[in-house]
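Lecture 7, part 2: worked example. A protein chain together with D-xylitol-5-phosphate.
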Amino acid sequence: MIKVAPSILSADFANLERDIKKVAAADYLHVDVMDGAFVPNITIGIPVVKSIRKCTDMFLDVHLMIEKPARYIEGFAKAGADLLSVHLESDHPTGIAKALDIMGQCGVKKAVALRPITSPEAILPYIEQLDLVLVMTVEPGFGGQKFIPGQLDTIRRVREIIQQYNPACELEIDGGVALDTAPAAVAAGANVLVAGSYVYNAPDIPAAIAALRGAR
Ligand code: DX5
Ligand code: ZN
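Predicted complex, written out as structure tokens:
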């Protein structure tokens, strides 16, 4: 089954509760955390995740685009995240392993994220303990960018690794996902589709979510 995770990066942050309710029909709520260092943009942090947790029961998929994320895992877990993803490029391997350990201790689901430049094999040291792998299909930092078709090869290879070592692990893609790009990504092995601008710019948001779910 294909899951849809609307990204609130495309929501109106002054009307966040209203815009979260608009995507209530989706599977996950994707929350983009950016620190102005790992990526050039700055978005939201722990206090906002805490407030989001109070206004929705949706599964909170929190994408950490921050340097040395181990420092903040407990804070985001306590704020109410259900899943945290850390970028493999955001720290040394020991820092990534530590972040995943803390996720386990805090009882949140574990994910790693890959920038387009990162090799699929980089997930191998962690794959057995992961709940999800996030493959970026744009350079992280901003919504509304164009899907990078070359990432279809990465999606295929990550799917192979998942099937070999941990078939229950989900494969999420993020960036430039819309009705024209989703079918090839699903065929390549993605099963969770993050979509910001496609969902929030749609005239009928529940219909857009349903259409993405049916992407083949
Ligand atoms: C980009 C973020 C994405 C972003 C996707 O760095 O991680 O989640 O919101 O936006 P669209 O769907 O507009 O490409
Ligand atoms: Zn994201």
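The first strand starts at residue 3 and ends at 6. The domain at 3-213 is CATH 3.20.20.70 (TIM Barrel). Keep this in mind for problem set question 3.
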